[in-house]
Fold this protein.
Amino acid sequence: MTADINWAAFAASLGDIPTETDRALVRQKSRDFYWYSPVLKQQLRGVSADIVVAPRDEADVIAVIRECFARRVPITPRGGGTGNYGQAMPLRGGVVLDLMGLNTIHPIVDGMLRVGAGAKLGEIEARCRPLGWELRMFPSTRRTATIGGFVAGGSGGVGSINFGQMREAGTLLGARVVTMEAAPRVLELRGTEVNRVHHAYGTNGIITELEIAMAPAQPWRDYVVAFNEFAALARFTNAVARADGIAKRLCTAVDAAAAAYFKPLRDVLAVGDSVGLFLIAAQSAGAFEQALAVAGGRVARRMTEAEVEDTGAVPAFEFTWNHTTLQALKVDRDITYLQSRFPGPDCLRLVAEVMATYGDEVPMHLEFIRVDGEVACAALPLVRYTTEARLRAIIADFEARGITVFDPHTYVLEDGGMKQTDPAQLAFKREADPLGLLNPGKMRGWDERETAA
Amino acid sequence: MTADINWAAFAASLGDIPTETDRALVRQKSRDFYWYSPVLKQQLRGVSADIVVAPRDEADVIAVIRECFARRVPITPRGGGTGNYGQAMPLRGGVVLDLMGLNTIHPIVDGMLRVGAGAKLGEIEARCRPLGWELRMFPSTRRTATIGGFVAGGSGGVGSINFGQMREAGTLLGARVVTMEAAPRVLELRGTEVNRVHHAYGTNGIITELEIAMAPAQPWRDYVVAFNEFAALARFTNAVARADGIAKRLCTAVDAAAAAYFKPLRDVLAVGDSVGLFLIAAQSAGAFEQALAVAGGRVARRMTEAEVEDTGAVPAFEFTWNHTTLQALKVDRDITYLQSRFPGPDCLRLVAEVMATYGDEVPMHLEFIRVDGEVACAALPLVRYTTEARLRAIIADFEARGITVFDPHTYVLEDGGMKQTDPAQLAFKREADPLGLLNPGKMRGWDERETAA
């Protein structure tokens, strides 16, 4: 598609917009954390852009789109590159658009923040906390991930125990999106319209700016707790998740077989400990610890946020969500993971059944979140990977048990968290990317439409 | 019991502690909003203390207790007197202890506030808001109710959609309680121990100080919304209650037959409107209004808190919880109400069935709250009162349908919200009030023990 492009001439056409064509650097910026999945690691091995372009503002974005559209060059937008499904990997080469330069953080008004797509989540949090506001939710990659990448490629994370998934009405308030056309348009999506581009991997528009609702900030206590038995930890974590009087931001339970990989916590954990990770409001620390003692757990580490910062300790949230897997991968390259949700009030019985079936092959990891006003039990268990066939068999067995699986071993939108083509996203792609040049190959609904046409 | 007391001599024994013996003023301070219930209105008609004593601090409280204990004079503690079940009415005369002088508000630390029992909830809110904190929950009588009265006689209210009932671990952090003994002890209850005196009507200790967890403050929008059909309003209110992305503090749905009594809203409502009352975070106003339009409702009144304050408008919350009943009683003295909870995900079907059965006799009023991490449908429907037998028949029918009723037509703890004797409260009464002099006649478990002994 891009074989006949003269990239030096292309770069020159962009004037003073920064570009990078060094093969190693371009390959580096063409990757995300796809290698969490041995399946994607295999499939996406050789993927690389031809050039990385780093716009400094929206005018630059528009200029790049014009040049790309004219030459039919695909664009794959990218933030911090911390996704796990190859979201930001350019399957058909062309331009990787590094949006980290669009990092303006505007003044916050009544908890509503307008922010450039490239602003890092950690910087947004640091900027807003002294003003009394904090992120409603963030991924465990908060230090390096951008808000644009999180909105385009993520779904929830730390904070979802309060605010549910990002797609719930009220969290994404607005998105400024540039279309992939000869004369690019700048569209302002408002309210639920933002879901047209949320979790669409940048396939149907380049997000340049976002408006998000924040949460009122409060001081958090960073907890690592330990239990002798995972079942007791799971019950405790579930109870904390449902305790309306205990203000929290994170409720994670990790089985001993997975927590054994938590090298930075070795000094505070004993062999065989199952580990809970929590962010608990300072005002709720007393009630939390009282409940912990009754449940038979112990505090392994308790820190204020300032103590975490000052000592350089790894914060609790960097053992949760996809960082649970990352901590394991640092020790054992044969580890991968699943994304799933255990249904109903009986979720912990089903968790116990799965653990009894798979034992050490699938070390359990639970994240409690809210879904439609109710507490739900999400799970990102580790998997000791042998073959893709075995992985698929485990997924099929989970589904047969009534567990919903959001397959992280695919780069196709519909086969992962989306489960099906989102008609609003597909319709918006027709409008905003008529030639299918944005992050091509990721939206099956579009490709099938292309084939059918 | 107190017939042979010389009250002038008693008052003199208290030195400079303020007292009041004027019959009219004493009767006034011996009442609460018990007259919401025609049953209690009848039963408690002649109730009055012999004297009102108004301690200025804890030392005064101890001095009063010494004198009362020596003479076997009962004490009924009182805050703002805004209860609805005769909580603060002295069935056996003696002293009404007006605790509103104990109104110190200490500096707030990390969202934890230590405060005198007599501090008004409205003043706590006003003092803490500029510091970034607000009450987790409050009754609709916020202007005049005290924190001590709310803790001793209440259970939840505005804010319970986020934090559940007050008794959930983590909201009541501590209580300082003086015992009714020859040598009164001052006890510091911590954490879940506070439930020994919470909702015990002051029958087992005099609360002088409380420590409570606050919520991080945020700007709220005060909404009155209108629907042509109650069923559509109920569905919308339920949906908002469950919408994790919409930050709120109040979710109330009032049927047209009840909303017809909302005189202060006549200018913004049409005849036949069913009315929703909401407090929605400023950042969530857009999502709220978008959902409202989709549901077929309209904004009847939208104000900032400053606008409510500046214009002297009646805030939305003063049409909710027990103020729904109060607004009706201002117009029609034959109105009373029920307190109930409609169970399960099918709650709205049951609501519709009850409405179909009772029609205009029981105008519906729903309050959505959290219970054990899930959204629950509480209801305080109005009742057009005819006879107590009919009222009891309605309650029995509600219960037969699986609706939990917390009978507001009784002054006995166990027959109202408590449903049964709380063993921890009874045990604490043995310890803190061995002679049964505190608010006598309210705790059935104690009286039956007395009879049995």
